[in-house]
Amino acid sequence: MKISKNLAVLPALAALGVVATSGVAQAAVETETAFVFNTFSFLIHGALVMWMAAGFAMLEAGLVRTKNTATICLKNIALYAMACIMYYLVGYNLMYTGVDGGFIGTFSLFYDPSAAEAALIAATDKTAALVDPVVGNKYAVMSDWFFQVVFVATAASVVSGTVAERMKLWPFMVFTMVLTAVIYPITGSWAWGQGWLAGLGFKDFAGSTLVHSVGGWAALTGAILLGPRKGKFNADGSVNPFPGSNLPLATLGTFILWFGWFGFNGGSQLALGSAADAVSIANVYANTNIAACAGIVAAMMASQVLFKKVDLSMSLNGALAGLVAITAGPDVPTPLYAIIIGGVGGVLAVVAVPIIDKLKIDDVVGALSVHLVNGIWGTLCVGIFDGGDIVAQITGIVAIGAFTVVATGATWAVLKYTVGIRVTEEEEFQGQDKAELGMEAYPEFGTGSARL
Description:
disordered N terminus; Ammonium transporter fold; 17 helices
């Protein structure tokens, strides 16, 4: 935008109260205007994060084999729906209501608009007496819930890709219900809900640990109890690659995730009512973007050195690794720090893959190397690059990891030894699309499909 156009909009901005008075060290706008901007930030950034659900669906659909594509698409849209319902029913209150420095919130049901907001919605005449109590909250109650709920779905999406191609549909949905209603909210309450970790000084700006590592630990316990896909590992420990069905689709999914990540990190400023907030969000956007850039370039170079080829799927995961790594501290002062954080993240994502393979843990889409490994790395970076307390960061990583492993491991085990979590060997060979859905994502390529 040119200078002349900037000058032209100044009177309009001044009329809205956007132009700050010199010497004022607080919000640069009137209270109601700040309320509107804060609410808008929650809603638009939440919508961007919701779009990440499509990114995960496309990424995973491209990295699984053709015979499991429809199933993974269904799991991704269904887990989003389950996460939203459970977070409304119990999850939000468990994470944010009445934590007060402790370990858990309340088990009260439902999270609805406040009484003041309900009165304002119902009123025909929106008087100041009705507006003022609402505005005093600084943002609309349900805008915060909407922004928070899309993060819950992200954690569950991490799990779906790791356990793909052999995990039963309905047990997976039950696990998602427990993860999003109870496990994720409890760990989230420790930091974002102003629980005991927040009191220690633990910092996780947008969720490298609280979202991505939690999803990663849940995926790890699931992959161990579920076991690898048939034929993935040989007796001598060598690995048989199972190439994805559609790498262009996986690439599209990566771009969508990258795009949605601006909402993930930018919205975590949690306000847009002042010039300081606007500057901070701009800095977060820039750092988020360049960390992803560094991650993909570093992953390309690492795969060339280690495997003598540039692997597309690892390069895509390098971009995501950079994004996960910067998520704990996207408010670092300059993009140079973000390049270092994202670049190291991209290398870690590549290096971790053969290590995980040696442990005979079958991670279909590489989610463990992206979300778990780099969730840990990104959280440590807050203490290394952003002035955080490194002891508090390590404490948070260990505590959240330990709790998530125990809680998710127990949940997977109960499901495994009751209803079972794995499809039969015959169903795995046939593919889950036919076995569980009775359909195919690409029917024209099926051996028994009708031809036009």
